[in-house]
Amino acid sequence: MAGKEDLKLLGLPLSPFVISVRMALNMKGVSYEYVDEDPSNKSELLLKSNPVHKKVPVLIHNGKPICESLVILQYVDELFAGRSILPTDPYERATARFWAAYAGDKVQYKHASCPHARALLTSLFSTINRIHARSCSRRGTAW
Ligand SMILES: N[C@@H](CCC(=O)N[C@@H](CS)C(=O)NCC(=O)O)C(=O)O
Fold first, then answer.
1. Global confidence as pTM
2. Which of 45, 69, 83, 138 could covalently link to 17 via disulfide, CB atoms 3.0 to 4.6 Å apart?
3. Residue 1 domain flag
């Protein structure tokens, strides 16, 4: 895609859904503005951009919101050239979407009432964040 893109991502630091979108943007080498939301005090921008679910991630591309991590991943994959996120074969794509949706249904971070599960998820996601931050600083990309 040519030209200067205005990309803003509304997120939360430990959300696996947000992390997957950040990884996708990073794979494509795209820079974007990242805005942390406060789940207990959601911004007007989030409520206006995702009035149905009121959840992150929301990607705002040139003022137009795209919601739901899997929808965003596919959008990013189609919009930007470079390394493909989803397989090109239609059956493999369908299989990848199936498992991504399955994993998304299972990961309900806010419902992880068990402190051990929360601690595990927290440590897992901060590790992912660290690995990505390192690989981005090596490659000179935003995240
Ligand atoms: N199906 C959504 C799930 C997104 C989601 O659950 N986001 C959580 C953060 S992990 C959220 O925004 N929670 C705030 C809330 O439920 O009010 C997606 O794939 O984007």
1. 0.77
2. 69
3. no
